[in-house]
Hints:
With 145 residues, this protein is mostly beta strands. It has one helix at residues 9-16, and strands spanning 2-3, 6-7, 27-32, 63-64, 69-73, 76-80, 84-100, 111-132, 138-141. It has one domain (2-136). The protein is built from one helix and nine strands, in the order E-E-H-E-E-E-E-E-E-E. Strands 1, 2, 3, 4, 7 and 8 form a six-stranded mixed sheet that branches. The mean pLDDT is 89.
Amino acid sequence: MAVTAYLYSKGKELIHEAAMNLSSDTIKVALCTSSYTPAQTTHDYFDDITNEVAGTGYTAGGATLASVTSTVSGVVYTFDAADVTWSSSTITARYAIIYDSTPGSAATNPLIGYVDFGEDKVSSSGNFVITWNASGIFTDTVAAA
Length: 145
């Protein structure tokens, strides 16, 4: 199942203010259990994230996104990266949290967006895979004149 991210308000603000560079910063994805409740308008930094998963094959803080692209075509901005796999893992997760780890601490690492898998996604001594939407992790379309 391909997934698409929802943006956190603060992340979108920082992108627009150029306070975050999605092309050169280290962007990561962490996993949370169903006990986490996303709050798009109030969660702004990684220290707001609760109930990160713990499991075989998973490291706290998540995985670094590879092959990150940040492009503009006409009035559409697209952010994308390679699909993510935690190999030989035993994980149960409901949410994937996308954030910028470049600032260096949970209190300063801004949240970008999250994915709600719609239900718990489970791997048992196998691969836990996030397959991003073919159109990109997220797009932002500017109103055309």
